[in-house]
Amino acid sequence: MRVLFLSLFVVLADQISKLCVKGFSIPFLKIHIDGMSYAETHNFLGSFLRITFVENPGMAFGIGLGVTSKLFLSLFSAFASVGIVYYLYKVRNERLILRIALALILAGAIGNFIDRAFYGIFFGYAPVFFGKVVDLFEFNFYPVNLFGFIIDRFPIFNIADVAVTFGVCLLLFFSRKETPQMQQNDSAGTIVLENDSDVKKDEEN
User: Fold this and answer.
1) Residue 199 — very low, low, confident or very high, per pLDDT cuts 50/70/90?
2) Which of 32, 81, 178, 205 fits a 20 to 30 Å CA distance from 116?
């Protein structure tokens, strides 16, 4: 379960980056960060990578949702996070890459869940579970014509989105990579069993 430290690190990085962009104040600790105005943007690596403050009321990468769907998504994220923690415990002795992938997905789910569940209350604009997810990373690139649509930028995202995406890609890549090897191992095991059966028959004869 040590991979949960990876989840904790990603969640902290995600929340710190979001709070620094949105701005917050903790008077008794004498902490005050002004943050950025909504839609304010700053070049980070020229115009290729920008820090742009927007808030997403729906899913990852700006996908919108209705009120009921938003509540369902918030609750689903909470239950899914608990489920992933339980599954991580079940596979605690499995391969490290599997546990890392699950830990990243868990971190991403928790990171965006915190926004949806508590940011509305913390910043005073919505009840519990109806907060908005803070997005901040904006990639711009050379325009590409894809099926008649001109694409010149990637939807604004956050660290939690990256963690989920990378975790899912790890699962897909390594599960596909393992399948042929597992089939070969099964075939080898079958051959060994068949050979054992032949030996037993010869001994009986």
Assistant:
1) very low
2) 32
